[in-house]
Amino acid sequence: MSILALEEADVFYGKAQALQRASIAVGQGEIVSLIGRNGAGKSTTLKAAIGLAPLRAGRRVLGGQDVTGLKPSQLARRGIAFVPEDRRIFANLSVHENLVLAQVMDRRGPWTMDRVWRLFPVLKDRGAQPGNTLSGGEQQMLAIARGLLTNPAVLLLDEPTEGLAPLVVEQLTEAMRTINAEGMAILLVEQNLRVPMKLAHRQYVIDHGAMLWSGTTADLLADRARVEALISI
Ligand SMILES: Nc1ncnc2c1ncn2[C@@H]1O[C@H](COP(=O)(O)OP(=O)(O)OP(=O)(O)O)[C@@H](O)[C@H]1O
Ligand SMILES: [Mg+2]
Questions:
Q1: Which of 34, 106, 115, 172 stands the most exposed, by the fewest C-beta atoms within 10 Å?
Q2: CA-to-CA separations, 38 to 14, 130, 136, 161, in angstroms, rounded
Q3: Ligand 1 pocket, Cβ-based, cut-off 6 angstroms
């Protein structure tokens, strides 16, 4: 059984259809990547999953239960954590305050302040600094740490490595691997195959709001030329 799934989801912005019969599922313990070029519908898929984009057709399923009608706040309480593209940390609060505020969700689970500090020691070192003084990579770490502190069932990450230096991308890749190894299901959105090929168990390719390809990472290796063509700009 999947932890989180969209089934045949249609999403519209006004008259423009942004998702067309889109289906995607994340299973227990899986890292699933969603790949696609600019404007393909990746962020919209995440927004549909977290309830920010209403479904005009189709279903949202969490832990086997139909949650199509629930609001974002209800879905968050039931264990969907979303780290958006713009990271949305509190710029004028300290790193520590940013982390403390993430704990208001009061969901039980293994992720504590100590545990996120172990994962990202720099967040402890920089605890007193305002959020906006962190580097891009550190801000991404803070955003992921905030998601983890809500002890979600599944973590949705929208282009976490975009615009970051190769060394930082490697650190984040390693961190995602650790988070997953400790049991967390992850839905990872990326524009290219760089990180997904290293991390993901299964992959989906989206274009023009439709899921055009899905398979295991081994399947993708075998079908790489076709997938590259679907995501190339
Ligand atoms: N709030 C909105 N209102 C109207 N159209 C939107 C809105 N958000 C996204 N769109 C459109 O919906 C389509 C899908 O956008 P989406 O943001 O999901 O793409 P994406 O794959 O995340 O792209 P990117 O790689 O640039 O982040 C695009 O054509 C986009 O212009
Ligand atoms: Mg996007």
A1: 106
A2: 20, 32, 21, 15
A3: 13, 16, 18, 36, 38-44, 191
Domain 2-231 adopts which CATH fold?
Answer: Rossmann fold (3.40.50)
Domain boundaries, the chain: 2-231
Is residue 6 classed as helix, strand or coil in its secondary structure? strand
Phi-psi map region of 202: left, alpha, beta (phi>0 left; psi -120 to 50 alpha): beta
Give backbone dihedrals phi and psi of 63, rounded to 5 degrees, phi first: 55, 35
The pair of structure tokens assigned to 53 is: 């984009």
Structure-token match 């890749």, residue found = 173
What distance lies between CA 98 and its chain's CA centroid?
A: 19
Joined together, the tokens standing for residue 80 give: 């969907």
Q: Collapse the DSSP code of 227 into the 3-class scheme (helix H, G, I; strand E, B; otherwise coil) and give the result.
A: helix
Tens-place pLDDT, residues 15-74: 999 999 999 999 999 999 999 999 999 999 999 999 999 999 999 999 999 999 999 999
Write the pLDDT tens digit of every residue in 152-166: 999 999 999 999 999
Q: Residue 233: is its pLDDT beyond 80?
A: no
Tokens of 130: 């305002």
CA of 41 to the centre of ligand 1 (A): 6
C-alpha distance across the termini of the chain, in Å: 35
Structure tokens at 60: 């949202």
